Every structure is written in C-alpha cells, then in structure tokens.
C-alpha cells in the first residue's frame, strides 16, 4: 500500500507558502506518496500541481457535495458535502500530516491531526501554537524547508 501524506494549508496563501507547497508536492510524488489535500485553491492547488508535475497521485477531499471548483490537478476527487467537517477526513487519512501556512481551517486540521496522535504532524511556516505560559505546544515538528518537512515525517528513514 502506498504511503499517504495529508497536506493542509489555506486557500488564500502567501507566495512563499505556495512555493513551499508546490515543492512538497513534487518531493512527495518523487517518493511515490499519495498526496491528500482539500482540493481547492492556494496551498491545496500548489501541492496538487507539484505532485502532478512529478507524475504523482493527488486525492482532493472536497467540502462541497459536487466537483465544482475542484482543482484540475487532482487525480481523484471526493465530494463529501460535509463542509469543514471534511478537515477531519483529511487529517485522519495520512500516514503523516504536513501543514503549510496558516488559517483557521488549517489550524483545525493541525488540531485534529494532533488530537489523533498516531502520526507525525509537521508545520512549515504559518501560525505557532503556544501554551498558557507562552511556550510552543509540544508535538508539532516545526521545519523551515520542504526537504526538512519530508524528513521530519520519518516515513523514509
């Protein structure tokens, strides 16, 4: 069975997040991983384009009940009709979760992946979660490049 990596990030993202997502997608595809994402614009579109450029498979788990507005670089489209609840499906489907950038939806995916507790959660850019004393919350693996993001998953050790 192929390794599956969920990549989460905002639909309205920075140029840096877009570039990082495209590279993460390409690197994942080169390693034969299936990319799972939300299937729309921003980080989701960039990771899909990166993976497809390297011949990879990309699964888009859509919030809508139809394929409208789905990214054209998706290999498989799953229209759920469950709205933002699809974030739980995305967070639960990967052997690792890579979070790129930050938004409220992205934060919910990070939280769901951390709550799941069974897979590595890697964050590249975006928001930093702090505890009540202002310290980084343990468990999230913070990295500064796409290459480090893949390495931090531990999937190819």
Automatic annotation (TrEMBL):
Matching InterPro entries: CHP00725 (IPR005268), LDcluster4 (IPR041164), LOG_family_nucleotidases (IPR052341)
Where is the stretch described as Disordered? 138-157
Tell me which domain of life the UniProt entry assigns to the organism this sequence originates from.
Answer: Bacteria
**Coiled-coil stretches, from where to where?**
none
NCBIfam families the UniProt entry points to = TIGR00725 family protein
- Could you identify this protein by its name? Lysine decarboxylase
């Amino acid at each position: 069975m192929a390794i599956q990596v969920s990549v989460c990030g905002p639909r309205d993202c920075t140029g840096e997040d877009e570039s990082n997502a495209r590279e993460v997608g390409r690197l994942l595809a080169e390693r034969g991983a299936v990319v799972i994402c939300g299937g729309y614009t921003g980080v989701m579109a960039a990771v899909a384009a990166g993976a497809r450029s390297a011949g990879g498979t990309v699964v888009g788990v859509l919030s809508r009940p139809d394929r409208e507005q789905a990214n054209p670089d998706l290999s498989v489209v799953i229209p759920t009709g469950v709205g933002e609840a699809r974030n739980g499906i995305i967070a639960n489907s990967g052997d690792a979760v890579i979070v790129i950038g930050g938004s409220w939806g992205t934060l919910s995916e990070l939280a769901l992946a951390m709550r799941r507790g069974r897979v590595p959660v890697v964050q590249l850019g975006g928001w930093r979660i702090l505890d009540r004393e202002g310290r980084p919350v343990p468990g999230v693996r913070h990295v500064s490049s796409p290459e480090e993001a893949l390495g931090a998953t531990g999937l190819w050790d």
